[in-house]
Amino acid sequence: MQSGIAFGEFDNVEHAKDIVALLAMQAGNKIVERKEGGFQSVLALQTGFALRSTDEAVRYYTNFSNPVQPVYSWDKSQPSSRDTFLSGRLALYFGYASELVNMRNQNPHLNFDVAPVPQTNGSAAAITIGRMNGVAILKASRNPTLAFNTIKLLSAPDFSLNLAKALLLPPPRRDLLRAKPNDAFMSVFFDSALISRGWVDPMPEETNRIFKELVENVVSGRLRIGEAVMGADAELAKLFSS
């Protein structure tokens, strides 16, 4: 079976949590917002439309695994979306820039291109999702001055640029992203880095379970979309209150 896009399921879709979160963010939901003293889940927040933006994002995503929908192209019988793409049986794969080298090594004969993530119609600004990690200094650090100087070194322009080149990734600094490389792939990655967004993920393994249950509750018909989203929002809220 050849497929156009691997949406709709969870276990056999690489980065399924990130894809669903991206669709929700493109529809106007921030997933998590800062509040006084911490953070709170806004996954089920209505953002000015008749329906919650997350509801529409989940509806769109799960339709691709619904046999009665004209967009049906994926089901549980498929291998992972990554393996299907590498075998030449999937037209579009949603992945990260960090996967490029490994994918080329796995199938050097696969002819493919990269492109920015498609955007929803009428969106106010282009958005894609990114993985962002930070560094911090422990209050119990024995040498906070040395730790702070190390952070300054790691985030300095020269170090950031050289590290990015070694990893074949766009640098994390906005000032360095202005100088786009001539390489067609890296040029897309640089542009995407400028519009990348994220959300505070308190416990990745737990949130992966929450999003998995959200998708599977809808696909199986156990819950209506609104009910599934409300349940996921409540589960995510518990992580911030614990």
Short description:
With about 240 residues, the chain is mainly alpha-helical. The chain is built from ten helices and six strands, in the order E-H-E-E-H-H-E-H-E-H-H-H-H-E-H-H.
What does this structure look like?
By secondary structure, the chain is mainly α. It folds into 2 domains: 3-122 and 200-241, D-Maltodextrin-Binding Protein, domain 2, CATH 3.40.190; 144-192, no CATH class. The chain is built from 10 helices and 6 strands. It has helices at residues 16-26, 53-63, 81-86, 100-106, 144-155, 157-167, 174-177, 184-194, 204-219, 225-241, and strands spanning 3-5, 32-35, 38-41, 90-92, 128-129, 196-197. The protein has a two-stranded parallel ribbon with strand order 1-4. Strand 2 (32-35) and strand 3 form a beta hairpin. Helix 1 crosses helix 2 (53-63) and helix 2 packs across helix 9 (204-219). The longest helix is centred in the C-terminal third of the chain and has 17 residues, at 225-241. The termini are far apart.
How big is the Rg? 20 Å
Largest sheet: 2 strands, parallel
Beta strand count: 6
Shape: globular
What ranges have pLDDT less than 50 throughout 5 or more consecutive residues?
none
> Which class of secondary structure composition applies to the elements?
mainly alpha
Determine the fraction of residues in helical runs and give it as a percent range: 40-55%
Strand content: 5-15%
CATH fold assignment of the largest domain: D-Maltodextrin-Binding Protein, domain 2
- Give the name of the CATH superfamily of the largest domain: Periplasmic binding protein-like II
- Strand arrangement within the widest β-sheet reads 1-4
CATH class descriptor name of the largest domain = Alpha Beta
